[in-house]
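Please decode residue identities from the backbone states below.
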């Protein structure tokens, strides 16, 4: 059974939060030093109980392959994860995101790695993106409470995009599962 707890239809930002200088290092703490790509982030709480983040990134050197000269799918996913973790943490801290009203930051830290899963991830590369200096945004499109087998979980649909000053573009969408939330 699916129970909608939020939806988006190009809602206007309700509140905007500049980068939280105390939050971002803790969000990125699970990443190895050379894999911390997220530099800045600004979160918007939307009128429909959802949220969005705009961010800047830099990947000085790939963590796993020789330089390809462009953002690749592995780096897209890592940047998405960092942007998503920050967005969820800031949304929890500011009580912006429908479905997460009972969460505290301590709940987020406990769930960050073991209980936030990417159920589906898709990328579409329109033009190569410069990995040394690029921007991105991600937003929650919906959050649904489900109870398969009696265990509650939150399913969230998201959309993201990346761009650079040279006209590079990549966009996509992802479905997240927040498990063990009871």
């Amino acid at each position: 059974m699916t129970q909608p707890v939020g939806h988006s239809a190009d809602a206007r930002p309700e509140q905007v939060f500049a980068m939280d200088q105390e939050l971002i290092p803790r969000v990125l703490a699970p990443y190895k030093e050379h894999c911390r790509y997220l530099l800045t982030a600004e979160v918007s709480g939307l009128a429909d109980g959802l949220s969005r983040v705009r961010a800047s990134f830099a990947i000085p050197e790939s963590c796993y392959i020789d330089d390809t000269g462009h953002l690749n799918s592995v780096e897209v996913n890592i940047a998405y994860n960092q942007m998503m973790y920050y967005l969820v943490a800031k949304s929890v801290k500011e009580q912006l995101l429908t479905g997460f009203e009972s969460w505290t930051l301590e709940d987020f830290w406990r769930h960050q790695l073991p209980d936030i899963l990417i159920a589906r991830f898709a990328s579409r590369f329109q033009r190569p993106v410069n990995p040394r200096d690029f921007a991105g945004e991600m937003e929650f499109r919906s959050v649904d409470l489900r109870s398969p087998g009696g265990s509650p979980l939150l399913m969230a649909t998201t959309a993201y995009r990346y761009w650079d000053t040279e006209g590079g573009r990549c966009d996509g969408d992802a479905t997240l599962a927040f498990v063990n939330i009871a």
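Observation: Residues 73-94 form the longest helix (22 residues).
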